[in-house]
Amino acid sequence: MKVFYINLNEIDKKYEKMKEIRIVPLADIHIGDELLDHKLLKQTIEYIKNNDNVFTILNGDLMNTALKNSVSDIYSETLTPMEQIDALLELLEPIKDKILVATCGNHERRIEKDTSVDIMNLVMKQLGLGHRYTSGSFYLYLYFGEKTQGRKAPMVYTIYGYHGSGGGRKTGGKINRAIEMSNVCIADIYLMSHVHEPIGTKKVIYLPDYSNKALNKKEMLYAISNSFLKYGGYAEQFGFTPVSTSRIELILNGQEREVKILIWKEEKNDN
Q1: What is the residue-averaged pLDDT of the chain?
Q2: Which residue among 80, 89, 93, 172 has its CA within the 20 to 30 Å range from the CA of 117?
């Protein structure tokens, strides 16, 4: 697990005044897959780019990278792996200043497994963001805004995330995988992808307060991000249930501790 510290207030003074920021994760885009919903992807990139308080986390499987020995069908790919890298760089360039952290997914690891080359590492270095990349899980301390109670200081939130692993046809199994993340560490937000279904829930735990000999209530938000694939292909062939591609949005209050998740209404796309 790699730990990151990002103080937005030190990057730009305008973030000191932010009453909230929003994080729209980008994951399971699968550039190169013929089922990629290009219209949804373009809308999401434009939303991140055009709003000062909207950021993103790159959470794996941004490229499909079908290889001869992989599950994906290389004959249905619309782009070669090299072309997928170029397409991803072009996609991310306009929002590179909005990328908080990035990791890779099982699809990108196909190339690393066969060649030792971590293509997401190369993409992040090309964007000048190699210092914000990890190939595994990440733990992010994120500072911005200003607390309205207590001493004058930025709000800080912690986010633990990784791409995800394993399968699961049912929603309950998918969210259970996300909740299991709190067996690793305590955080305000847990972010997982991989299972292609936008889901959000909260749980509460009580933590010991040694100084006051008390218990403090801790609320934790669990989020699973959406994919950008239309129904068909592998999912249809093996009888998987269609899932929504509605994007999720994490909303962090910059004045008092509060985190929320928004799941947008699914856009009607005919492409």
Answers
A1: 91
A2: 93
- Tokens found for residue 176: 């259970």
**From the centroid of its chain, how far is CA 263?**
14
> Looking at the DSSP assignment, which residues form a beta bridge with residue 214?
209
Residue 104 CB contacts under 8 Å (≥ 6 apart), including other chains: 60, 112, 118, 119, 120, 121, 135, 163
Domain boundaries, the chain: 2-263
Distance of CA 238 to the CA centre of its chain: 26
* Residues of the chain above pLDDT 70, percent: 92
| In contact, 92 and 122? CB cutoff 8 Å | no
SS3 sequence, 32-54?
A: CCCCECHHHHHHHHHHHHHCCCE
* Phi, psi values for residue 64, rounded to 5°: -85, -40
pLDDT tens digits, residue range 70-90? 555 555 678 988 999 999 999
Name the percent of the chain in helix, strand, coil, to the closest 5: 30, 30, 40
Spatial distance between the Cα atoms of 189 and 219, rounded to a whole number of angstroms: 9
Is CATH 3.60.21.10 correct for 2-263?
A: yes
* CA gap 61, 107 in Å, rounded: 5
Return the pLDDT at 167: 64
Phi and psi torsions of 67, nearest 5°:
-120, 170
For 153, other C-beta atoms within 10 Å of its C-beta total 11
